[in-house]
Structure formats: structure tokens, C-alpha cells
Amino acid sequence: MLEVVFNDSEKGSLIVAKNYDERNMQQGIIGHIGEEPTETERKEHFQGQAIGGKSEDVVNIGFSLDVGKISGAIDGEERQNVFRNLWSHFNFDHKEQEHFFQNQRKDMEKLLNAAKNNIPIRIWKSDAPYSICGFYFVCYILRDIDCEISVVSLPEKKVFKDAIVVYNSWAEVEAGRFYQFLPFEKQLSQMEKKMHSGYWQRLIEENAPLRAIINGEVISVPEDFYDFIIQSNLPEDDFILGRFIGKLLGEYNLGISDSWYALRMNKMIEDNKLVVVNSKNLSHPYEKVLRKI
Q1: E strand spans, 222-273
Q2: Which of 9, 17, 98 minimizes the C-alpha distance to 62?
């Protein structure tokens, strides 16, 4: 079976989940915050089961398809420029960028080969915009291939024996707990695949710079769609960019990335709505100290 997720963090978690070993995970503890956990607490935290299969059978169709125009080739120059724009505040060199794009192409080839060779495909989907857009895209590229697809949709909340947990994406799910979501797995019918493919075709035609989830539906929106959230939360005093973005991510469950917030705030700096007054660490862009103008 080929497992499909929609960003690198999710891929890493699912790879661990494929062959999860509770004992090895406990032995891997190297630190803690606050009081040292008891042996019982350690065991409870790392309780889990493997979902089985091989690590190489996990692919990331992580094209961040909620961001940027989508009418061209999925890994073409226009889409690559979307990533370069998102990465603009980090020091990713050309080699690192090309390695990322190569991995994307390899995972895409794995997905297409699995579909054509009738290998079952299981998609792990959440309500985050990048995930739903990725799901629609997969349905679109597989629309004419007769293949077996199942979907595990991340529930709004999951009740465990010790807690009720709200997850925003699969990247937040502990590797040892993935198996507990398998009862949510459902087969995707050919009719459903065609329907979701049609949604993506509509979004391609609209070709907006950004897509957001509104009332459970993916909607094409302008690139400044989330700016009001930034502007309405700007403090009167000086603030550190990274802490401010962390506050937005914690308070607004929108499934958008820290990179998008940073990109839009850099645009506000260019437009003289914010000013850089200092930097706590010149090597890290999130350490900028900003002030509202």
C-alpha cells in the first residue's frame, strides 16, 4: 500500500508510524521540560503500535497547493517560484532547493506508478487548506486511472482514554497513535474521485494567488485574504516577528503556514505599514523586532 500525505512533517511522522517501536522510542528520550517524567508517564506517552508496511511506501505530494497560481505545470518554473517566494526569508541555497524539487518529482512518480499498477493508495487528509487542495489535486491527476483509493480524514477531535485532543494536521499526531485513526478509513468511489477532480478543475480555471477554506469549502481568494488577522492583532509596542507569528498560529486554526504569515508581513514592511527596528539574531529572520507605523 502507498501512503499519501501533503507535507514533509506529515511524511516524517508517518514513516515512523509504519514501523513504530514503543520500546525504542522510550529509550530515545534525551530531555524534558519541567519535572522529569515518571516511568509510568514515559510509558503512557510513548504507547503505540505500528501501522505496518515499508518506510519507502510513504509519499509527500507537498506542493503547497493552497498558495500560488496553479494553471501551469505542477513542478514548473512558476510553481517553483512560489516556493522560492515562501523561502525568501530563509537561507536555502540552490542545491537545497533543487533537492526539495527532486524529492517532489520522485514522490509524484511513485504515486502515478502505484495507481497504474493497481497498488492500493491510502490518503491521509486533514481540513487544512494545503491538505484539501492536495487531495483534490491527487483526485484530478488520477481521474482517468482505475485504481483503489481509500481516505483517512483527520477528525475535528479525537477521544483517547486519557484526553480529548484537537489536531489541526496529521503532522501534530504522534507516530504511535496513527493506528488509532485507521477505523476512520473509507474507500473513495470513482464517482467521488471525479467529483473532487472537478473541484480542482474549477480552481485551476480560477487560478487565484491563494485558496482558503470557507464554510468547509475551498474558495479562491486574493493574496491579502489573511492580512486582516495580522493587522487586527498587531501590538502597539515593539514585537518579535517569530513570537507574533506563533501567537497567530496558536489562536487561529486556519491551517496556514508560518511562512505565509512571514511573507505577508514582509510585504507590510515593503508597504511601510511595519518597520524593522532591531534584530535579536541576524542569522534568523524570525528574530526581527518590528513596530507598527
Answers
A1: 239-240
A2: 9
Report CA-CA distances (Å) from 246 to 34, 170, 197, 251, 258.
21, 19, 34, 9, 8
HSE-CB at 85 with a 13 A cutoff on CA atoms is 18
176 three-state secondary structure: helix
Cell for 92? 536555502
CA proximity to 255, closest of 9, 3, 74: 9
Query: 171-220: per-residue pLDDT in tens?
Result: 999 999 999 999 999 999 999 999 999 999 999 999 999 999 999 899 99
CA atoms within 13 A on the CB side of 119: 16
- Report d(CA 87, CA 168) in Å as an integer: 22
Dump pLDDT digits (tens) for 206-237.
999 999 999 989 999 999 999 999 999 999 99
- Taken as a whole, the chain contains a residue count of 293
Distance CA 105, CA 272 (A): 39
Show Cβ contacts of residue 292 under 8 Å, excluding neighbours closer than 6 positions. Answer: 234, 235, 236, 273, 274
Task: Tell me the backbone φ, ψ of residue 237, rounded to 5 degrees.
Answer: -90, 170
> Residue 7 has what DSSP assignment?
S
